[in-house]
Amino acid sequence: MSTWYLDISAALKLVVDEAESRALIAEIDADRPALASCTLLETEMRRAAHRIPALTQRHVTELLDRIDLYTPSAVVFAQAGLLPGTHLRSLDAIHLAVAMQIGVDNLISYDRRMVEAARDVGLAVSAPR
């Protein structure tokens, strides 16, 4: 079984109807990967629920129950700080460092800067459309 890492831009598409939602859900249904992310995703998703009227905390909980969440260690935080890229944001760097540490097969993101940074460190990236 392969492992796909979801960032916030991908995870939101699983609970909020967006342009790419159906394509992402179809690929997950077809490939049946294990879904993974960093514990930061919980904070990001729960904050998004405050901004997006259609997204409830219950939806967030139900999604998070389907994702293996990894807690970054001090080493991961240090590695995240050392990743290349002048436009790589701190939270994205932590997500990338966790994805690298757990050895994911695919990182799913719809964020241009995250996609570029992931490719720069050698991760396979996709954004089903």
UniProtKB/TrEMBL annotation:
EC class of this enzyme?
Answer: hydrolase
**Keyword ATP-binding included in the entry's annotation:** no
UniProt similarity note: Belongs to the PINc/VapC protein family.
Q: Where does Mg(2+) bind?
A: 7, 92
A GO MF label: RNA nuclease activity
Q: Which residues form a coiled coil?
A: none
Identify the InterPro entries for this entry. Answer: PIN-like_dom_sf, PIN_dom, VapC_family
Name-wise, this protein is Ribonuclease VapC
Q: Which UniProt keywords apply?
A: Hydrolase, Magnesium, Metal-binding, Nuclease, Toxin, Toxin-antitoxin system
Q: Gene3D superfamilies of this UniProt entry?
A: 5'-nuclease
